[in-house]
Automatic annotation (TrEMBL):
Highest taxon above the source species: Bacteria
Name of the protein in question: DUF2800 domain-containing protein
Pfam annotation, one family: DUF2800
Region (Disordered) location: 360-400
InterPro entries for this protein: DUF2800, PDDEXK-like_dom_sf
Source taxonomy: Bacteria, Bacillati, Bacillota, Bacilli, Bacillales
Length: 400
């Protein structure tokens, strides 16, 4: 990291942060609600921070800092010595660097490149600011590029509010020196997709969107508006204890379609599934939250923590197997040779080598997944295969 730079984990965050904009734009009062709760982190988040610091180092050496090779290698060595470092970070951060280089080289004349630039979008969201991973501007084009290290949730650039807020901040910072007609957003997420997600819009459309969200942002800043439930709840600090979630849980049972025997119709059954599904998801998460609080010493009337099912392990594997061999047990009984699964091999080889040596060479066959029930608004296409109930269930469900 260049001298004077603030470490990623130590940077200040706005109440209306760009990274949480998907949440406060859908549920305005969540911003102030989250403010009352302690921020938490995880090993995955800390690993992502490390990957960002490595990627920043590589981009600064390539575009903005006259960094001697010895200094760069010493800094990279320190990052690699950290406990959370994974060898695959080298491949992934190189992919990010390659993409930025491709963008820079696409300009007819050298563009301006800003790395980890703090941007101000307070014209649209009160006291709003954030740090954009990479901004490239010139020739009436603005590129805002974000690196994401996560593997669990794919993040797309299309209509992404975080990226649009960064772009608004970049326009404010650079448009006087670099007039912009078109804005390009890109998210590089190597653990999820081989190619970056890209989306473009005109600068005029971006400014119009910024103007359209100002009333919502003001509501969020004031802690006003109605709580709204949705997929934006997943990473909210208040998830589980959110008043809207608790209210829905109480109301779900009261609103379920109920009729006398013999059976509900399939339409009533489907409606019950639709209403109960989010409550079941909330209950599962709420129990985990409650357990963590009880283990901290918080008293939850009517609940306690108990010891779950235990497990067995070798006290000392080497000594145990040496003892068994002394007693005449053959090694063939003790060991089972088993090939790595494809996901394990992909991680061991890296995605590029795995694709070249296995997928492209025709050594991987892909089978469709088993049918699973999903809400009607799920983005996946409806399953159209002919499947018998007994192929899915061990015991076919009774028909009404």
């Amino acid at each position: 990291m260049a001298g004077g730079e603030i470490a990623h984990a130590e940077r200040a965050h706005a109440l209306l942060s760009a990274s949480a904009s998907h949440r406060w734009l859908h549920c305005p009062p969540s911003a102030r609600l989250e403010e009352t709760l302690p921020d938490t982190t995880s090993e995955a988040a800390n690993r992502g921070t490390l990957a960002h610091e490595i990627s920043e180092l590589k981009l600064r050496k390539a575009f903005t800092d006259q960094m001697p090779t010895r200094k760069y290698n010493a800094a990279l060595k320190k990052f690699k010595a950290q406990a959370l470092y994974e060898p695959v970070m080298e491949e992934h951060t190189n992919a990010y660097l390659d993409y930025v280089q491709k963008i820079v080289h696409s300009f007819p004349s050298p563009p301006f490149v800003a790395i980890e630039r703090k941007v101000d979008y307070s014209d649209y969201a009160p006291e709003g600011f954030g740090t954009s991973d990479c901004i490239v501007v010139g020739s009436r084009q603005l590129h805002v590029i974000d690196y994401k290290n996560g593997s669990g949730v794919p993040v797309g650039a299309e209509d992404n509010p975080q990226m649009k807020l960064y772009a608004l901040g970049a326009l404010k910072a650079f448009s006087l020196l670099f007039p912009v007609d078109t804005v390009h957003l890109a998210i590089v997420q190597p653990k999820v997709r081989a190619e970056p997600s890209e989306w473009s819009l005109s600068a005029a459309d971006l400014l119009a969107w910024g103007k359209s969200i100002k009333p919502i942002a003001q509501q969020a800043f004031n802690g006003e508006g109605a709580y709204q439930l949705g997929d934006h709840c997943k990473f909210c600090r208040a998830v589980g204890r959110c008043p809207a979630q608790v209210k829905r849980a109480f109301e779900a049972g009261e609103s379920l379609p109920v009729k006398p025997p013999p059976l509900s119709t399939w339409a009533e059954f489907a409606e019950a599934l639709r209403r109960v599904e989010p409550v079941v998801a909330w209950f599962t998460g709420a129990k985990k939250l409650a357990l963590s609080e009880v283990l901290k010493g918080t008293e939850l009337p009517g609940w306690k923590a108990v010891e779950g099912r235990g497990s067995r392990d070798y006290a000392d594997l080497d000594k145990a197997f040496a003892h068994l061999r002394e007693k005449g047990i053959e090694e063939a009984v003790l060991y089972k040779r088993q090939p790595l699964t494809l996901p394990q091999l992909e991680e061991a080889l890296t995605k590029a080598v795995y694709k070249e040596l296995l997928e492209d060479a025709g050594h991987v066959s892909k089978k469709p997944g088993a049918p699973t029930l999903a809400p009607e608004d799920d983005k996946r296409p409806a399953y159209n295969g002919q499947v018998k109930p007994e192929d899915v269930f061990s015991t076919p469900p009774e028909q009404s």
